[in-house]
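User: I'll paste a sequence; please echo it back and then give the predicted structure.

Assistant: Echoing your sequence first, then the prediction.
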Amino acid sequence: MRFPRLPVRACASLALLGCACSSLGAQTLPEVVVTATRTERPAQETLVDQVVIDAAEIARSGATTLTELLRARAGVEISQNGGAGAISGVFLRGTKTAQTLVLIDGVRMENPSGGGANLEYLPLSVIERVEVIRGPASALYGSAAIGGVIQIFTRGGAGPSTSALLAVGTQGSSQGQAGFARETGDGRTRVNASLSAERTGGFEATRPGSPDYQADRDGHRRVAASAGLSHRLDGGWQLNATALATDGRAAYDDISSTPQTAKLSYRTSTLGLAARGPLAAGWTTELRLGQSGIDYAYQAFSFAPRTASDSLLWLNTLALPGGRLEIGLEHLAQRMSGDGVSVGGMPYTRLKRRTDAGFAAWELVAGDHRLRMQVRHDHIETVGAEPTAAIGWGWQWLPGWRLRASWASSFRAPTFDDLYSPFGANPSLRPERGQGAEIAVEHRGAAGSGASLVFFENRIRDAIELDGSYVPRNLARARVQGASLSLTRPWAGLRWQASATVQDARGEREDAAGASQRLARRARVFGVLGAQWQQGPWMVDGRWTAQGDRVDTLGQKLAGYGIVDLTVSRRIDARWEVFARAGNLGDRDYQTAAGYVMPGRTLWAGLRFSER
């Protein structure tokens, strides 16, 4: 792999400095993650590039939307067609939204129509934890995981708790949230629930001169509820149920509608049921049922898709001498219906699709070395069979220090819009197929300090991108290569967090005589610098987020930008806390999608209650 020489040398120097400083002090308790292997594992035992954003980090960040929270992580870029509720995208390591799989409490959340999970529909207020896997993960999760996986865990946590939040802000914004979790006296049964509501009057999201410009404010409102129930049976068996539902309405700007009719209503839902326990000594099995839906309707015209994805997973984990074996079967059934989809003058040519898959993973530990191999075979109706594989290796050569390397193949099936839509479909599209590799050096130190430097490359054959007429086409190839640096450490009374990514994301069309072009909305350089100060009841968090120049779908130039967000909070007592936040403190005018402006300076203030 070839990487830009000067940026990578700078990253390496900073990583070594950060690692050396973070090595002081005792080691922290091991952090447990789920997404890397689909089972709970200590983070230091996994062999992927991952990041965990817990409840404390979400509160410190002061973020008000999920995309705002995600963009503060290495290797993650976002795009928005305006403010809250507007169409949003996420780019993991230069891959696009539809190439990233999203899970909610283990349930696949995917829009069969266009791919992706419509992140703008998901409220941050009911989210307790987010795990992000950066890099190909199709050998474990199947289609769509070319760029990685984002798993969202709704509020629940451990032990009894009560939470509440009330906040108001500029642009007529307000937010409220309340939740609880309770356990029986013997700790065997646990129930939790959370309810939130938010609204904003919005702002003018398009620029004058844009074909979509409308002189109005684009507001948004949403209510959301989540719930969970778990019960521990005799013999080590555990039963779990989770649910999430949202209902929202958003205004937008569009060339084919008016300010009175440019309205979108939506609903999302996920339901998960799981049973897990031992079948024999060293053999644990898990059966998981899931259902998710993304429904939305436009007031301006008759297009109201109702989508559903039903999933079934059977996962078995067997302890072996020196390691473990995982074997699983998975089924996914997706369907669409509604106005403009199954009824109307021009319906989709196909409304259902089924996927059946089997996978296995073998993990071996030998001294300070760990090896993991995965294989998977998917069969997708109308698309065909897709095999994938992955191998990862890690070496813990010193306490807290690890060197690892991995390779993985991946794929993504074309969406229903790509293949079956009456407008702009391309039935001859081939699945995207990729191969990715990475090399990383990582360090975990005291009090959550650490550093990592990751060199990565992802080559995608037949990558699907829109042409100038917004028709999906297969590129001859796409390639993303680069390096990401992450640092966390205390210094001078502050807790510093920094991340920087240098990448080259390019694609070649089959009809372009081998000429390459930059992939839309991906910057060559982007990163975040943050610092937290805490003294007694006071906490101050400041973050500078920067992104280099980009191009959009039709070649429009998007200038680079840097914005500052500042959050201040004061704890009144062990349960009550007041906070205030200034977003885009410098009132920077910038775009992440051509013709659409991002929010200017915003102010929030509120009161938070938390008891455990």
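The mean pLDDT is 91. The domain at 35-181+190-205+213-482 is CATH 2.40.170.20 (Maltoporin; Chain A).
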